[in-house]
Write a structure and sequence with these properties.
alpha+beta, protein kinase activity, Kinase-like_dom_sf, Prot_kinase_dom, ATP binding
């Protein structure tokens, strides 16, 4: 199974966001010389990192995962280093003059694959530095991509760098793109099983918990740098959550891992992990939500991901402008009959998802964040859905919700999609030539960040 870190994760989105909104086509050509210089700097930086790692038999270069990006990720394999006992030139022992030869070493058994992400240019050193700080602060969380300390002295490299775990099954951009393309080619509607959506929602909730309650500061069993991974839980007692937000929780930054047999949360669907902390930061408390400001924000971000997956649409096609919603009279979450305005888009009302999941997403997207469910409530709701719901709970949708149907769905759109002759690789967007609508959306996001006076850097 090939890994793919999309341009959304490591690609040119940062370049687009730095470019501004009102640029016309003529403006795009004015910096061609600068682009050439930048491309050369990026290539030289990437080559320096590759040479640094392959100078020892401990690492082997596999491939570059994205090019022309703000941060160049490369895939390496890490190996045991063993003495080369082979004959010929370089053989340990005595040479023709009876003098000791220098011992030679070679790569032995492969231990793991790693991703090395380095700033392509000095402009982006700050982003990679920020990402590494956050990854170190959030170490030990199961649903957050982990940084890896290789014990190397990287001071000789000019660019900032972070080493992280390798996740083998791509991101939600590919996953969603495969479903969209299948619909177009087969002219059939793809319906994501509710049990898939609930499981992914639980993964996202765990990721939010990991950011709100870092293992380093809340887990008494946490030992720095020992590599132990913990499932994120809300700590008991009166523990104040951080004011950290990820800042870029979209399809391209959510990576699909593997299924784990015997793990009720990941036995039918792969684990979902959040990556790319380059825009992570702390935000100030809002009067309405206080210490829960960041948590309420991230609950909404997670709900948008589930909404767009359920609609089988690209994340960036979300056109939410505030959809009015009235909770049903039998709403199980205590919201019966309440009317509100949400950040859900108008398509969500007609999405092929269960009424319970639909209502819960609406709740998580309430425009008044103080009315959103608590993190504890989100965790309990998702856990209950994952542990108890079967195909019998979905009426006419039941045939799409059996264990066999869910496994077949994941097999088709995660594991088999790239190898099926009938399906092409998912379409990639050229973010360096993004549409005015998309650029305007990103400009609005930048404005909101500036308006809130956000900071950057890990929690103390």
């Amino acid at each position: 199974m090939a890994a793919y870190y999309s341009d959304d994760v490591y690609g040119s989105q940062m370049d687009v966001e730095m470019a501004g909104v009102g640029d016309d086509d003529d403006d795009d050509t004015q910096g061609s010389n600068q682009s050439g210089d930048s491309s050369q700097e990026s290539a030289e930086s990437a080559e320096a990192v590759r040479r640094f790692f392959t100078a020892t038999p401990r690492f082997r270069y596999i491939r570059t995962l994205a090019t022309g990006s703000s941060a160049a990720p490369m895939l390496f394999s890490e190996h045991e280093v063993v003495e080369d006992q082979g004959g010929g030139s370089g053989q340990a022992g005595k040479d023709d003059k009876g003098e000791d030869r220098e011992k030679k070493y070679k790569s032995g058994r492969m231990k793991r694959r790693i991703v090395v992400k380095s700033a392509a240019q000095s402009t982006y050193d700050g982003d990679v530095r920020n990402e590494k700080r956050w990854m170190d602060a959030l170490a030990g969380s199961e649903h957050l991509i982990a940084s890896i300390d290789l014990g190397l002295d990287t001071g000789v490299l000019k660019r900032q760098m972070v080493v992280m775990e390798y996740v083998a099954n791509g991101d939600l951009t590919e996953f969603s793109g495969r479903m969209e393309e299948y619909q177009e080619k087969k002219e059939v509607k793809v319906v994501v099983p509710n049990r898939v959506l609930w499981r992914f929602f639980l993964c996202l909730t765990r990721a939010v918990i990991g950011m709100a309650y870092p293992q380093r500061s809340t887990n008494p069993n946490f030992a720095s740098n020992d590599g132990t991974i913990w499932r994120e839980e809300i700590p008991e007692g009166d523990v104040t959550p951080t004011l950290m937000i990820h800042g870029d929780m979209h399809f391209g930054n959510l990576l699909l891992g593997d299924v784990t047999l015997g793990d009720e949360e990941h036995d039918l669907t792969p684990i979902l992990k959040l990556t790319d902390f380059g825009e992570s930061r702390t935000i100030p408390e809002e009067p309405e939500t206080g210490i829960w400001t960041a948590v309420a924000n991230q609950i909404g971000e997670a709900a948008v991901v589930i909404m767009m997956l359920g609609e089988v649409r690209d994340y960036w096609d979300n056109d939410a402008d505030g959809d009015e919603y009235r909770y049903p009279d039998d709403d199980p979450n205590g919201q019966a009959g309440r009317e509100t305005v949400t950040l859900a888009n108008t398509q969500w009302a007609a999405a092929d998802v269960s009424p319970a999941l639909k209502a819960f997403v609406y709740w998580c997207l309430d425009t008044e964040q103080e009315h959103r469910p608590t993190l504890k409530k989100v965790l309990e709701t998702c856990q209950t859905a994952v542990r108890t719901l079967t195909d019998k709970d979905f009426g006419n949708q039941g045939p799409n919700e059996t264990d066999a149907a869910v496994r077949a769905f994941i097999q088709k759109f995660v594991y088999d999609a790239d190898s099926e002759g009938e399906m092409q690789a998912p379409r990639r967007r050229d973010l360096t030539r993004s549409s005015p609508t998309r650029r305007a959306r990103r400009a609005w996001r930048r404005f909101q960040r500036l308006r809130r006076g956000v900071g950057s850097g890990p929690p103390p």
